[in-house]
Amino acid sequence: MKLKYLSLAACLIVAGLATSSTINAQGAGTIKIGILHSLSGTMAISETTLKDTILMMIDEQNKKGGLLGRKLEAVVVDPASDWPLFAEKARELLEKDKVAVVFGCWTSVSRKSVLPVFEKNNGLLFYPVQYEGEESSKNVIYTGAAPNQQAIPAVDYLMKDVAVKRWVLEGTDYVYPRTTNKILEAYLKSKGVAAADISINYTPFGHSDWQTRVAAIKRFGSAGKKTAVVSTINGDANVPFYKELGNQKISAEDIPVVAFSVGEEELSGLDAKPLVGHLAAWNYFQSVKTPANDAFIKQWKTFIKKPNRTTNDPMEAHYIGFNLWAKAVEKAKSTDVEKVLAALPGLETPNLTGGIAKMLPNHHITKPVYIGEVRADGQFDVVSKTPVVPGDAWSDFLPVSKDTEADWVTLKCGNYNKTTKKCSGQNYK
Amino acid sequence: MAALAAAAPVRAQPADTAFVTALGELPDAGFADKEAIITRLVETGHPSTGAVLTAMLEDRLYVRASDRRVFITTSADDTQPAFSLLDPLTLKGAGSSPPGDLTKISTNNRLRRVLRTTAARFALSNPDAAVRLAAVTDMLRSLDDATTDLLRQRLPQEPDAAVKREIETGLAMMALADSDPKARLAAVQTLSSRRSADARNRLAALLERADDGTYAEPDEAVRKTADEAVRNIDFIRSLYSGVETIFFGLSLGSVLVLAAIGLAITFGVMGVINMAHGELMMLGAYTTYVVQTLMPNHLEWSIPVSIPAAFVVAGLAGVILERTVIRFLYGRPLETLLATFGVSLILQQLVRSVFTANNRAVSTPSWMSGTWQVNDALAITYNRIYIVGFTLVVFGLLMLVLRRTRLGLQIRAVSQNRGMARAMGIRSEWVDAMTFGLGAGIAGVAGVALSQLTNVGPNLGQAYIIDSFMVVVFGGVGNLWGTLIGGLSMGMVNKLLEPYAGAVLGKIAVLVALILFIQRRPRGMFPQTGRAAESG
């Protein structure tokens, strides 16, 4: 009898709760900007910050008099960390609210979910998070890092500066880690690393019992060769992972862990002492000292009214994305998506850490890559920096994509095959 | 000269000047320059060098903003109101400064590695045997001729057996490259009794064959002994890794038991499907966080204080939940389920509003962190040992309450036959509230333990609720022993499968096995018998 209700209970947990709050449109003369970030559910931790970043940028732009003489107005929706709801909310923004541009999404699965909606309605999405690549849509601008702007330089650093010979690729079981690890495995093998020196493992979302995995990493790392862990572990699973590393006395001096999803925001929620010395690869660190970054941090702390809030990489991506869009609108003298898309490639805007972010024809941007070591206060010490790297949509290290190219200026195609000289259309399989 | 002598009570020597100059350059140096400065400090041969390097390694070397002078602090804890300072030259007290005045001289991985091996050389003559042992272990990580000489000099005067053994290991590792085959054979024999991965790798390296067919070790007899030694070490290490897996299973199992045991009372004994059970654990975890913020200077006591606090907080929440919601819904499981699910969402949103959606940082007290190094091949983490012990204690206490106290008698009476119990003069409503409060309080206590293992955030409860229900159903509803055995065996099976099937497949396999088991024995491992079973 009781079991019947239990199964119902399980369904309820999976279903979760979906709420939405829409600031509805008022005033005809405004330019509407859609913000599609989860404000509830598991991703709220990361995505709420990005919503606030765009609100801050809009506020700032309005103080300067708006764009094309019109004020900007935010339309905030809450897709509640629920992937199908992302598509629904995106449709609402594009069809009902008729927004000029959308800033949104975090996980790759949410981006994949809204992609058909944006292509069907010819919308414009700025996507601010590092991702696995293998995609270039006419309607999406990727301001986060492609694998060659984060994963590959991180591995290069470990290989050259730390002389790592053995690799553990540890990830959460979903599309971003699996694709990234596939690219990294191909890259490592092309650099002469033997298959026996690469260990790839996946754990479920929110994995909390890391004893076996950490013991296995310890064993793998005790073979007498310098070992490093490349971590694509996502979200909440990181804290117990690093805690277990600390408890099993694996220090960053012995086996460094380089993470692609652990930033200032994530570190502020945990005791960073066991993590000291572990690495992260990003295109932005709060600790990088430049006048632009200092001003941005100050502006953020004033806007959010909390002096201990941190800034992070996806926030910078939104900062760059918003500035690029504003420049494109001014250049096109219109908010029409076709005109803005035509104006975007080639535009430049300074990024926060010094250097210039340039919009490329493949809808990615140029970014410098920083490798940082975790400090006890949850910030990073930069130990390595590259010049700006152009984002590559299709990895050169995967056999399926090495002949593919994205170019929305001359070829007008997101996946052009260089050998068959054919554009296979908006099909990302 | 007079002024200088007055400034430093110990007579100024040339070493002092070089030492002070090098030290003065530290605050403004980059990481690469710092490495060079460390070498210069060592070259001065100043008696304080070891202390300065150790302080730098332990994040206790600071520069004062007002006069740019470098100081050693007695503790690395930057939450204290003021640091007490030591002069790096004389190692005598030099007053104190508030943390705002001081900037830490930062280190990175590479620098820490250099510091560790360099500082270890100075710690070889430390009076504390544990410090000497750690120093030798650090030195073994990067053996060269200089460190070998130091170890060789230390060996005859070393009184402690464990340190002596470790030094012999190091000397044997170096002797493997000796030109005399007899010395190499002796070294292999020494290493064959060690269990560390390092010793094994060095022995295995002797057996490697170059492309032209020659062995790294030319002598046949040495090779044979090394081969036997490697096999022996491998065998023993695999035995210990089996022991380790069993312990992992035990510890995962005890976490499951801890999470499920409160539910075993509310669901098992009272028959209430409480979907807010996970959130009661979450309340316990947040209580730990609040206790830690309230007593930042007594971190090591925060856990003993949190346990009763969490019991009270979650228990009260449970009693309120029972009195305001659940008591109107007895005998209507579907409504109870929906109502408590609603309550779970309310509680989640409540902590989001109070503590924000971000995870809270709960620190682990020092007595709970680290590992118990049983031998070179086996190490067990302390926090897991404590949690296994804690689960057993909680289980024992709960059994005691149910079997030996008046409340326990009344709980059992009401759950078995409410009508008869009321006829005997038991206030069944009061007993219901207390039973639910007891189950909820134990969920809170489980939350304290979980705060040491996983994220303290609004979603903490959801991660454990399904596992908890699984354990209770598997063990047999209404049977606490079933919950204990069920939880431990589920943890064990999960951990035995994980190395072969991976974490994802392992979890699926356990679920499938559980479904098949429930199909055959719908009432779990230890079904209730007698009249209570029919009414449930």
Folded structure, characterized:
- The complex is a heterodimer of chains A (429) and B (536).
- The longest helix of chain A has 20 residues, at 44-63.
- In chain A, helix 11 crosses helix 12.
- Chain A has helices at 2-15, 44-63, 83-96, 108-121, 151-161, 175-190, 211-220, 238-247, 264-267, 291-304, 313-332, 337-343; strands at residues 31-36, 72-77, 101-104, 125-127, 140-142, 166-172, 198-203, 227-232, 257-259, 279-282, 348-350, 356-358, 366-367, 370-374, 380-385, 389-390, 404-407, 413-417, 422-423.
- Chain A has two domains: 18-146 and 310-367, Rossmann fold (3-Layer(aba) Sandwich); 148-287 and 370-390, 3-Layer(aba) Sandwich (Rossmann fold).
- Chain A has twelve helices and 19 strands.
- In chain A, the strands form five sheets. Chain A has a seven-stranded mixed β-sheet with strand order 7-6-8-9-10-14-15, with helices on one face. Chain A has a five-stranded parallel β-sheet with strand order 2-1-3-4-5, sandwiched between helices.
- In chain A, strand 6 (166-172), helix 6 (175-190) and strand 7 form a beta-alpha-beta unit.
- By secondary structure, chain A is an alpha/beta fold.
- Chain B has three domains: 14-110, no CATH class; 124-218, no CATH class; 247-535, ABC transporter involved in vitamin B12 uptake, BtuC (Orthogonal Bundle).
- Chain B has helices spanning 2-7, 14-25, 31-44, 49-57, 109-123, 129-141, 145-154, 161-175, 181-192, 197-206, 220-269, 277-294, 299-324, 333-355, 382-404, 406-416, 418-423, 428-451, 460-475, 480-520, 531-535; strands spanning 61-64, 70-73, 83-86, 93-97, 102-104, 371-375, 378-381.
- In chain B, the strands form two sheets. In chain B, strands 4-3-2-1-5 form a five-stranded antiparallel β-sheet.
- In chain B, helix 12 (277-294) crosses helix 19, helix 13 runs antiparallel to helix 18 and helix 19 (460-475) crosses helix 20.
- With 536 residues, chain B is mainly alpha-helical.
- The longest helix of chain B is centred in the middle third of the chain and has 50 residues, at 220-269.
- The interface between A and B is large, with 58 and 69 residues.
